[in-house]
Predict the structure.
Amino acid sequence: AQSVTQLGSHVSVSEGALVLLRCNYSSSVPPYLFWYVQYPNQGLQLLLKYTSAATLVKGINGFEAEFKKSETSFHLTKPSAHMSDAAEYFCAVSEANNDMRFGAGTRLTVKP
Amino acid sequence: DAGITQSPRHKVTETGTPVTLRCHQTENHRYMYWYRQDPGHGLRLIHYSYGVKDTDKGEVSDGYSVSRSKTEDFLLTLESATSSQTSVYFCAISGTQQETQYFGPGTRLLVL
């Protein structure tokens, strides 16, 4: 079955600094990969998804992620952090005919 | 935003009592899901439905049952609530099993 590992349960960056949230996946077939964001007391919202088209995927709010098959990774980046980016981020993997599996989440703190 | 509502949004109950949570969608999506979210575990799938009266177990289904008598409604029942079921419960919907899931606002359940 597919699985996801998010490295680092907490990441702290300064405003304007690069954001890098790491995600590695395990899948026996070409997967669909997702990044979701959760703001306090809200449900999850889709940031971006990879569905076997372009390996570099652009999402909302200036985020992007690159699918690297050789590294089984799908890291999330943003060149310049904003205070409003503070939230919890979840990586997820989905295979055909299988449940979507979520990582444990990474809480991003942005310092002024 | 996808039209998904959950009720109640907050509930406090006592150990041993039955509890039913409701998820309602206005998007006519085929798939509906119930997850629980706990610190350090991300989201874990409890049950899901792939059509009216068609349901299947997820990763953490023990102690939970579900029903779907209409496309728009998916009910989660805790037959006899336990303190380990204190959690935040999220409903999600999708058109197919592998596609983007859209999440409701969540129900915060406290079992005393």
In short: The longest strand of chain A covers residues 19-26.
